[in-house]
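Before the break, one more example. Copy the sequence into your notebook; we will annotate it together after we see the structure.
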Amino acid sequence: MTNHLPRHITLCALLAAALTAGGAHAQGYTGPSTGAAAPQGYAGPSAIPAMSVKELLDKGRDDQHATLRGRIVSHDGGKKYTFDDGTGRIRVEIKPKHFPAGRAIDDKTVVELTGELDKGFNKVEFEVDQIRIP
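Here is what the structure looks like once it is written out:
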């Protein structure tokens, strides 16, 4: 029986780690869904321009940095979300680590997303580097 003890300890440790990781994800977006959090970070002035979704879609260039202010209105599966600022909607990609620690974000929460536009032949999305709740 003592030969199985190290396996049981390893199994318990893996299970605890999986449960902890699942709990960290639950602190992020909590709004509508179809399918570990970072600190808030720097909040001072920035050279990255604030833009509307409409401006970004109409005039944005691939790899252009921007800040968008609006709401994440749905979780579309994995790291994909839909963002709306009142001028339009854009698909955004947000890694779980970019959600602010200890702050729930739902479809009514106004957020500022800083990141870059990813424009390809068949897709346009905004890759988020930072989420801030103003």
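The beta strands are 50-51, 65-77, 80-84, 89-93, 110-119, 124-132. The chain has one domain: 2-132. Try to locate both features in your own notes.
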